[in-house]
Every structure is written in structure tokens, then in C-alpha cells.
Write a structure and sequence with these properties.
Blueprint (H helix, E strand, L loop, with lengths): L5 H17 L4 E2 L2 E2 L4 H11 L9 E2 L2 H7 L4 E4 L4 H14 L11 E8 L2 E3 L2 E3 L4 E4 L4 E6 L10 E4 L1 E5 L9 E4 L4 E2 L10 E2 L3 H9 L10 E10 L3 E3 L2 E9 L6 E6 L7 H4 L5 E11 L6 E5 L5 E3 L5 E2 L3 H4 L8 H7 L1 H4 L13 E2 L1 E14 L4 E4 L3 E4 L17 E10 L9 E4 L5 E6 L16 H8 L4 H18 L7 H4 L8 H13 L9 H6 L9 E2 L6 E2 L3 H13 L10 H4 L4 H8 L1 E6 L7 E2 L1 E7 L6 E4 L4 E7 L15 E4 L3 E10 L13 E13 L3 E5 L25 H6 L15 H7 L11 E11 L3 E3 L15 E17 L10 H8 L8 E7 L13 E8 L6 H5 L16 E4 L5 E7 L24 H5 L7 E15 L9 H4 L11 E8 L7 E7 L14 E11 L5 E4 L5 E6 L34 E19 L6 E2 L2 E2 L11 E12 ...
Parallel strand pairs: 3-5, 9-12, 14-22, 18-20, 26-28, 31-33, 36-39, 44-46, 50-52, 58-63
Antiparallel strand pairs: 1-2, 4-11, 5-8, 5-10, 6-7, 8-9, 10-13, 11-12, 15-17, 15-19, 16-17, 17-18, 19-20, 19-21, 23-30, 24-25, 24-27, 25-26, 27-28, 27-29, 32-38, 34-35, 34-37, 35-36, 37-40, 38-39, 41-43, 41-45, 42-43, 43-44, 45-47, 48-49, 48-51, 49-50, 51-52, 51-53, 54-57, 54-59, 54-60, 55-56, ...
Family: Belongs to the CTC1 family.
Organism: Patagioenas fasciata monilis
GO cellular component, one term: CST complex
Amino acid sequence: MAEPSAAEQRWLQAARDFIRRALPGHEGPGGPEPPPLDAVLRCLRSAGGGDLPLAYSFISISDLQHQQCMPCCSHLTWSTNEFKEWAHQGEGALPMQSALPRTYLILVGYLTDRRQENKEELVDGCLYMKDNTGIIPCELLHFELEWLESLFLFPSWSYIPQTDQNAAGYLEILVDPVPVHLPEEVPTSIPVPYPVSAEPLLTFRIPCKERSKLTVAGELARLGPLLCISHKTFFFLFLKCFTSAVLFPVLVQKPNQLAWHHTLQLGHRYTITGLRVSSLKKSGQRMFVTGVSSCLLPYCAEQVSEQPVDSAWQGESTPSSSLETAEQLSGSLELGVEEERPASTKESKIISYVGTVTKILNVKAGLFLLDNKVCLCLAYQQLLNSARGLRPGACVELIDVHLLQKPLVSFPFIVLGACLSSTVVLKSFSRLSTPYQPPASSGNLYLQLLFRHNLGMPLYLWLVSILETFEERFSCFFGRCTLLLSSTHRNPRAAEKFLVPLLQAMVPDREEARDIYNEILAKIHQCPLQKCLTLKPPCQAPSLSAVYRMAEQKSWEGFGPSQLLSPLEAQHMGTQELNRRLAWSYCTLSAGSFQPRLILLGVLRVSSRSSSLQLQDKTSTLPCVISHKDGSPFAHTALLGSLLQVENYQLVVERFLQTDFPSWEQLENLEYVREKKISVYVQFYFEDVQVLHAAEGQIQKGLRSRNSSSLRKKDGGSLTSELETPEAKMLKLEDPKPDTQSAEDCQKGQSTNTRTSCVSRLFLVTQKEGLMLRNYQLPREGDGEGQELQRSFQATVLWLGTPQLWSHSRDTGNPLELEETSCDGEEGITQHEALLLFMGKSLRWFPFLHLEGLYRFIVPHCSDLEVFDKLCFPPVPAKFLSMSSCPLCLPVQDTWHLQHETWISCLTEHQLAARSVLRGMDKRISSIPEVLSNSFTGSLVSFSGEIVERTLCASPKNEKTSLTLGLRKQKGSLLASDHTVKLSISVASGSPGVVDIYIAATYLQHLQGLLPGAKILFQNLERKISRFHNVYCTYIASSCVSIVSLPAFPLPSSPAGEGLSPPLVFLSNLQPHLQHLPKARILCHLSCVLTLSLQWVCSLCSSIFKEGRCTRDNPLCPSRTGVRQASARVLVEDGTGEAFVLCRNQHVAAMLGLSLLEWEALQNCVQTRGRVSIQHGEATGTGCVEEPEDLIACYLRNLCRSPLICRPILLDFSLDRKPSKILQPAPLQLRNFRCHEMEFVSQVGPRLSLLCLNVEEVEQDALSYLNSERIRTSGHCRVGATA
């Protein structure tokens, strides 16, 4: 024999070292023997054709698990061409995947079915390979029982690590291993009863005196999955008679027999020894049960001999004690029987199928995609081998699986469901480098909910889609996804809190549990997959980006610009007014507006750009408006970062159009729509919120009155380390950079042994201003020249008590400072007042800070009680500071936390001992009648009221633009800067007093929820009086808006009160100073028409439009579109007074008593003339210029003088807030009135100016009724009018 080369000697030495280290010594007759080096080398030479594989190196299991991070394979006996062909065939199945990379490693080890866990030997039905360094799971396509505990050389294998780097992978044994030692011989002759003789043993009870063990043989017809119940693992197999189709079950439950599951092959014949007959307690079903001494052998007709039944079975069997553990299956696995379905329920087909795994849909849910078209569901079986081998590229054979076509409307694949009677056989391993994703061994919420609620396949697939979306959306906010998906009965997680109520509503608890034994053993198959009904999802919880798209689609579905305007009004509008009325509209959607019903889920955050509340997930954000049903503002700072569920809400879609419609006739032509955008936000009540995951532990039941602290007490004290923890991500704004300077300021005076302490101070909010761009420059920033404006807001507060120092373990929520206020007295009020400046990250507290609220600032990781005083500075330089009572400014630091305590109205009497401290708080909020009163003297006003109407109008030409120049640079405003929003506010719907508020479009990006029907608290509005003596308010930089209550659900389609009939009044009840009275109704007599004007004007410049063109020629107007307009001024009386009524457009025809056809013909005649005007009964100059030669004018003059015009009418009106002549107070005068043949005298005041809103003809019967009704309610109307 030739001397080995140096390379071979080095290889042999490495082999000796490996075998000595990794392989245990063989147990011989005289004790342990040295490691079998020669036997291993003999196997290697035999596999390599006599040569040693010098290109390969040995590797231990430990080294393989720790050094190999990527999937790999090793083929000891293959050539390079053979490997390339093997890899090419694998890549052909899935072209987008690459083949396993080849490594040159040698694996030698023992096959075993046992593993060590907590120093105990466990048998779980899985196979393992082990050596001295470790143990690893392995999967084999072919296995023999005699291989157990034998040493093998593995010539071809693949190592598949887990995607989780901290967990071990497993081995796929591609070809049969080569034994290092020779196998032992098997017995030659075994007495076996023929199956025809074994069948009666399970069918009849034979009397006996003692138990007997049996040996039976048959063809394996069905192999059940491994099941583990109450820490007991077992499986069923079914042998078929050789001469008939009769099956008899065998229960295998002994640990040393679980490896049979890997060697059994369908269609093969086997012999099983040492069986007993047992029966189930509940159903009485009989079966064979293996014993400790039972053996599984291949059936060979020459090696068996017949044994009579009488000798094999001498008596009646009794249930074995070991079977009782398996009997717990029904109770431990909380499954129920499928309910009876309607007649439309389809029966699923049972088929067999062979396919290739092309994608893992969801390994935790047991869903795999076969051949890119069929979904395999293994959730109804227990995957005790953790789905090892089921990687993309693997081939599987499915036997007796249920075919369910379209079980879920939204599910795109046909489903093959494996029940407990199905068999899943792995035919070949994947050749691709695809990762291994093991399902969760514990806390698998998919399977827990499936079994607990006994879900059918359609409902389970819907559950999977909901959980997948849930995990994808919110796992990034709460660290590991197991935080959401793990489940415990005492502490359910967010996903379980969300889904369990839905499942309980859809699948009520059933009295009967799922009978596992009946499902496996019954002759007529019954299982949850047997019946299938296509399910329409009961609800949906899409991502917020999908919610935005769905809301956008809903808002534009069937939308047309003509829907926003009444045709009678639109035909008289000019171009500017028409397009302005179309520029801003809204629609509201509820959960029921979507199919299926839409549930909102999101993490409550504060926008870093707009400082508004919003719901957030991984995909997008959704601004939100939150209120309380009792009218108190939303101030729960503890909810920041919490995961919320909302089912009752209003999804508001604000639509913004930029249009160029020449006139109303082109409204159906969408070519004139230049741009359309939307803004989506949601509004809901806090009482309709379900907290799925609290930001700081469990939200207490008393959250409405007392919030838990939002303080993060962590070691280290720096903001960076605090925000890096998953638990602290909820309080993190979009800007991840910490303000180090602020952190340093807050930590001044902090001692090293009190790093977990904090300082807090209680305060009362007395005034709050809006969020605006301001030129705040803090003292340390220098003179601030050249610096840009920064978004900020300020609030005036009243300190209550002194700063408090709290330890880590104490509760900061007790407002003990309120007891100290009684000692300060009235003299100390001014020095406790401060002006808080919020900038930067502290803007997140803007939506939580409200008037008359008690809050607490918490400075974490601080022990300096003077931290608030040290940061204060005068609002103006000291040389200009003339009053010592001027409050000091305190910039709120980014690291401070705000905690809402309570409201003034909730304080007890002893907590308000110092009433003088709160003096004047109730006077800061005025009522609408007070604001409208002539005696009101304030310039800044605050009041609350309900929005009656919201309209968009042009900005005043004399508006000051200095302030808005900076605002126009801000992003987010979807309205043009030359627009102004007018809000008509009243105390309540139908109240007499209405005040108008004008808000420039540049402010609207910070204002949401301004919808008709909403109750709003306006603060610091500027009160103004127009030249017509009308009181109105404007929104300025210091103004602020708070939503007190949301509109009614659902929102009214028209402004509040429009559908109500106005009250009947007398003209004498109306006073000239009641300029803010909403619409009313009078029963009056039309005395005469004073002026009448019909004209055809240019839609662009309002000049006279004549003969199809605009008459303006300097400069020349390019418009080719005219608009019809009409106006009339009439005199009416009701016996108590007289009034001028201004009528416009369609109301003129009603006043003249013309039909639609007559009115249309009249206006067509005006088109050729451009304008026709008449006047009657007024001095020259007060009416219109009359053209005496015009025939149309003559017709109109005769019509106005006709006695047919003078008739009783029912007039809806409002007071003209811009009359041509302002009436001065004058004494009452006597005036003669005539009613039919009767003449009477009445005292009347000055003639009022009214605006016509509607005109109705009155029949004689209705006239009598309305007269009596008016007289009956006249006293009430007078009170209402003068209130």
C-alpha cells in the first residue's frame, strides 16, 4: 500500500481530531471502545470509489449551527456536472429563486428520536441528528426503524437555518445515510391473525377471563398526523384488510413508537405486535392500542403463521389507563362541531393532490401556496415538526384533503384543507436557497382563535387576513410583533382584544365541543372542513392609506359640480361667484358607508407639522377630531401612543375644486375642472374608543377624571436612550433628533443619586392662543435678526401651589397643591401667573391644552425645584417693563411631559377654598347675545355656539395682508388665499341670535371639524362693527378654536334648521336693532312694486351683456357668456307695520305671480335689450332708470300696477343687514290700512328692510287658518323677537 501524501496525512489527522472530539465511543462487550475512525474512513472510501474526499472537511453539529448562516448543501459523491444539473432543475421550478450553494463538508452522527430539554429526555415524534457537540432536527424522505441510535455518514444533505439568527435550523437528508456499523437481523417468524379474523375483535365483545395481546397485519390505508394533547404525543394509523375494504384503527401512543410515523408508507403492508383492544368512554368506539412491547415489522407472507381468534382473544377488553390521557383530547382542544348551514351550503370534495410549494403565504397560520394557484391550509392539523421541509420548491403529496372553492370573497386561491383524516407526505426537498420560517411554538394567536371559536375555513381565512394586516401596520410601533400576537387569558394583547368581540358576535359559543375521535374514527367522515359557504367579510380594518383611497373614491363617486348648487340659484350667478361656491364642499362617511363595514385602527399621535391629533399606522396618518359626549374637551394626554379602535365615527372628506366654469350651463362639462383635491379626517367621541394597547400600561377605568402619568422613568436620563426603547416609541414625534440643549437645561441641579426623581408643578389654563407662525426669539438666541418665523402658540396659566419633588415610586397624580392655594390669598395671584411658550416638540401638547383645565408639568430625571423659575424671562426688556404684575414667559422644554388632572367644574368645595384665585374665570366666556349687544365694549371676545351655516366668500378688498404674507408660504392650505370662510354661529339650532365669523383661508390648515351642526368654542376673536351697524367677528393670530361637540350622526345634508318652518311673526314685533334675527315668516299683503330690474349681465365682469357679447370695451371683455339677473323692491304690510322687501332672481317671478314659462319668455326678451327697468312710487334717483319707449318695460309697468299683484302672500324673510338706508329711531305714527271693505288705523314704526327668502301663494282657507295661528302665537313671537 502506497505511503499517504502530506495532504492526505493532514486530512487524516483532522479526521482523527474531529472523530475524537465529536463522536462518542462505541459501547462494546468489554466497555466503551475508541471512536470508530476506521469504520468512518471505510464508508468514505466506499462512497468515493476508494479515494478519500480530501476536498471535503468534517464539521460538527455545533460548528454547523454557529458558522453557517445561509442555506447550503453538500453532495459527497456528486460531480460538478451532476450538481449543476440538480440545481438547474430546481431553479426551473421557481425561476425567481436561486439554487442552494454547494459546500464541501462531511456530516457524521447518530440518528435519534430523543432530545434533551431541562435535563430531561423528551420524545416528540421528530427525528434528530446528534454528536458530542450538539443535536439538530432533521427530515428524511425515507427512514427505517433500525437506523435509530446508529452512527451514519450523510453523503447528501442540506442545512437550512432559521430566519431568526438566534434560533437553530435543521437538516434535510437528501439521500439515505450510509451506516457505519452493520445493522442487526430481524425476527423470522411471527404468528399473525389474518385481518378477516381481526375485524370481529373490534365489532363484537367476546367474554373473557384475562387480557391477551394480539399481532395483526394489514395494508396501511391511512396515516393520521402527529397530535400532542396535554403533553402526550400520539397518532392513528389505519390498516386495511387484505381481502376487503374494511379498515381498523390502531392508536400509537408510546414514546418509543412515535418514530413509526416516519417509516410508515401508504400502500405498504405491515405487521404490528403486542396490540390490545380498547374502547372510548364517550362513543364506545373500539380500536387497537399499542403497548410498551409492541413492534412494527414489514409484512412478509412467508414469515407469518395464522393464529386462531380464540387463542388470540380470550375475553372482553377494558379501556386502558394510558388511553384516558388520549381521551382528554376532546376537552383540552377547545374545538366545536360545525353548525348546520343553510341550504346554500356546499359540500366540500375530498381529493388527493401532488404539487410544489411555490410560496409560504403565512407559516404561523399554516398557509402555503402550491403551484401558484392552490392554497394548502394545515392549520386544522398540528404541525409538530414545525413545518420543516415545506419550503418553496418542495414537492408534497396530499391525500384525502378537502377542496374548497372560493371560501372567501376576497381570497384569490382555491383552498385545500387538511383535516385530521388527511395525510401530507413530503415527496422531495427543495433545491432552492429559500429561508425556513418556523411557526410559533407557543402563543400562536391564529391557531388559538381557530380552535377556541371553532372557525370554519372561510372565517379563518378572514381572520388570517385581518391579523396579517394588523401585524404589518402596528408591529413597527410596539417593537416585536409578538407583543401584539402573543396571547394569555389574563392579559390579552391588542390583536386579541380587537378580534375576540368580533368573533363572538359572528360565531356564538357552541355547547358541543369538536369530537376529535369521531372525526378520526367515524365511518362517515365529519370535520369542520366538510361544509363550506362562501363568506362575505363581516367587516374590514384596512390600512390608513387604504382608508384614504377608499374615502377619496367614495367622495367622487357620482359627484358632479351641479350637485352643490340649486339650479334656480346657479343660473343667476356670475363666473366668480359660481366657481367660488364650487371651491369647497364636504361629504361625510360612516362605518356603514363601506362594504363590508369599516373599522378604524390607529396609534394616537400628534402631527409634527400641524400639531393636530392623528391616527397613525405604518402606511399613513389620518387626522382626527376627538370630543366627549358631555361637551368637555378631549385632554387625555395618557392616550398618546396608544392603539385605538373606533367603530362609530364620521369620516369627513373635504373637497377642493379649482374650476373655470363660464356659467351654470356648463356645469356638466368636467373639462372646466382644472384641479381637484381632498382632505380627509375623522371625528369621533372618546366614549366610542376601545383602547387595544395602552402606551403606558393598562388604562384605568377612571381615565376620564384622572389620567395616568405619561412620565417615562428610565435610567440614563437622556432623551435619546428613552426614545430608542420600543415602549417609548409612542411618545416620539416624527423628528427623531433630540433637543440636547433642552435636556441639559432640564437636568441642571440634578444629583447623581436622584436620577429617577422628577419635578412637577400644577397649573390652571386661563387663556390659550392659536397655533401660528410667530417671531418668538428666546433671550439666548440673540437679537434674532434674519431668522425665520417659527410655529408656536402661547397660553396664560395660573400656577397652583409650589413645585413638587417626586420619587420614582410615588404617584404624581394627587393635586395636593390645591390645598395650598388657600394660604396664598388674593395678594399672591399676580405673581403666580405665567405665559407659557410652546415651540418645537412641545407643540404636541397643543390639542390637549384647554381653557379651565388643570394640568401638571412633569420634568423627568430632575430634582431642582427651581427649574421653572430658572427658565423664565420677561416678555419685554426690563427697561420697558413698567408693571411688576406682567407675567413672566416660560418656554416649555421638549422633554417635559404634560399630564391632565381635571377640570375646574370637577373640583370639590374644599379644593376651591381660595375662590379669589379663580375670580373672573367665568367672565372670560361671553354669550352670543352679549356679543351682539350694543352695550358690549370688548374688542376680543370668546364664546361658544353651533355652526348654522358655512359658506365661502371673497376676502374683503381692504383686508390687511401683512400678516398673511408669511402664512401663504405654509404648505397644507388647499384654498386660495383670496378666499374667506364665513361661519354663521347661533346658541343652538333655531335660536334668534346669529353672529358671523370670518376666517381667512390661510388659517384653515390648522382648523378641522368646522361643519354645520358642530358646537365650537371660539377664543380671542376680534369683534367688529360694520358700516351698517352689524356685529361680526374675525379670526386673528391670537384666536383659537376648540371642538365642543360633534354634529349629529349622521350629518344633516342641509344647514341646521333649514328644514324647520320659520316662526310666524308680526312686523310690529321686529325691531330695527334686531339685525341678527334669522329667517322668519309673515302673512302680509303686497301693496305695490316699487322698482323692478331685469338684466342680462356678463358672467365675468358683470357689465351689461347684449346681443351675445359683453358691452364693456375699455378694456375689452373677452367673455361670451351672459347671466340672467333680476331684482325688485316691493312694499308689504300686515296691518301692524310696513316693510320694504328686496327680491332677487327667481323670487321676482313669484312676487309678480308669473309661471315658469311666462318668466322664461320674459327673460328671453330681455336678452336682446340687455336691461329693462321700471320704477313706481319713489322719487327719481331712488329707483332704476326707466326706458319709456320699450314695450317690455310698458308690459312690466302695467303688470306692476295691476290689482292682481296686490294680494296676500306668505313671505319667508331675513332682515337686510346691508340696507340702502340705515333707519334711525323714530316715534310710532298712525297709518290707515284697508282689508277688503274694512278700513282701520294702526300705529306703525319706521319701514324695515327685509330680504326675501321664499314666496308662497295663500288660499282663502289657509289665509283664515294662518291669521288665527298668527294671533294665537303673536305674544310668543314678540318675546322671541325681543329676547
